[in-house]
Amino acid sequence: MQKIGKQTIKFDNPPTISQTACIVGPKESDGPLAKYFDQCLEDEFWGEDSWEKAESKIIKETVNTLISKSGIPSDKIDYCFAGDLLNQCISSSFGLRELNIPFFGIFGACSTFVEGMSLASVFVESGIEHAICASSSHFCSAEKQFRFPLELGNQRTPTAQWTVTGAGAAIISKSGTGPFITHITPGKIVDMGIKDANNMGAAMAPAAFDTLMTHFKDTGRKPSYYDAIITGDLGYIGKEILIDLMLADGYNIKSNYNDCGVMIFDKEKQDTHAGGSGCGCCGSVFSGYLFKQLKAKKLKRILLIATGALTNSTSNQQGESIPGIAHAISIEL
Amino acid sequence: MQKIGKQTIKFDNPPTISQTACIVGPKESDGPLAKYFDQCLEDEFWGEDSWEKAESKIIKETVNTLISKSGIPSDKIDYCFAGDLLNQCISSSFGLRELNIPFFGIFGACSTFVEGMSLASVFVESGIEHAICASSSHFCSAEKQFRFPLELGNQRTPTAQWTVTGAGAAIISKSGTGPFITHITPGKIVDMGIKDANNMGAAMAPAAFDTLMTHFKDTGRKPSYYDAIITGDLGYIGKEILIDLMLADGYNIKSNYNDCGVMIFDKEKQDTHAGGSGCGCCGSVFSGYLFKQLKAKKLKRILLIATGALTNSTSNQQGESIPGIAHAISIEL
Lengths: 333, 333
Hints:
The first copy, chain A, is α/β, with parallel strands linked by helices.
């Protein structure tokens, strides 16, 4: 691998995404991408007695499904990179504690899935055979932890995003038939002073802008190089902000740009306000829909940019703004 | 790099630890390692109006000190790996938001510092010039978040460890005069069913045992190969458990083994019960004391094994056990 430009790594022997898997909750199962997911749950508990345990079960079974679909024996998988939104990332550590694969805990808020893919790619390109990345989120555990108890029946503001219940996971391998991860552009923390915890799209869009512009400058590519540029998860409001920011700098991404938080729910029929969010959103949209589009050659080159809001409820109560981050990877056939 | 054995990576061109830095709180400044730290604070707030903001300032100024001591311009540092114990790792993301270096958030509880060194080493050996790793913890913010408000004046149980107020940071570089990171052995999650949140040493010792045994088997080395085997942070109780577990498997580590949580406080004069803990404990003991011993050639080969308890207060209230993890790195001249 080699570093090109300011922040991008170009792989000499691009790692393959061998297989993906995803499991989603009931609301996601009513959305437009339902048919692409491996498993659609009928309720948010999945037989567990807490939302946290349900989320752990979702990431656990997603990774089990992944390994089973891949046909790769689990003792041939060298390392696992995983994280989630819960305090101290307990969904991943409890869900994957029986996995018996060396584990790197990661936290990038909703950017975690692509952070994991980036780290796994570097390990694989540097000599490792197989690595797993995984991330999860759960609407109920996230609302309870970051906002209000669901039992309170609070109204959500129009700019609020709906945390996806679900998990995505992928195996990155040294050899295979693609799709290949050709570049990664890990992002910097960007804080433009947004303080509204119900407007994460606005808080994260400047980070997506920064990483996207850096990626284009570092690689010399233009937006039109990609069949699709996909952020995860700016939602409707962040998506519009990113389009405007890019346009102001002379890049028109309107024709080939979409967002996982926009794609996963139906705007008219499902009332999610500003769209989906959460580590499980980008994870499941990529692992379910995008990966299958790549395998079917309906998409040949995509830029996946996962965005995260690096905040918690304490910092918000202390009047702090919300720093954002965005990590990008090029995936090509 | 190449994978050897089950979990270990051996570097063909071992990365150098170019420089380290650490800042610690007032209790740590009264301990036996005080003279090795870059800065000793007089109070837990350091001019801020919350413990969380104080912790952010500690990691921020530690990284600023590191860059300044290293003489490496910050725009030559490619990536940063950092994490802490606060919910959603806000100490790192707020503390390092102005750093302007691409950022990977990591979470391994008290194992975070060595997790960061491991990831940074892989990036550097694979072609990157310089990477930073950093971690922090703060006694007051940790007690507030994981246990009880300090104002309550709760008694601590004899098995409880004292979270270190402090941060450690290191620059890992492609070329230099050492000390070199020659191997990493990332650990698996190990859960032996310990449920006492006031006995983290017992929860983490089995993970340290698993990683340590794996490291010896993977490398063919024996405990006597190392001048020092240092865990961070099992404390007094976890240290004794690890010695016993190793002895039962035929490895006597008693003569060259110590623990950062044991080393940082004075057992007689400072009442910390089971010793120190926290991401800042291993971080500051390595960055302060151990690195200087290596540079002075008083230690030539050490195995640093940071241990983490992957738990939170919710999982504990839900009756869950405490999974542990331990990551090891060989550091040699």
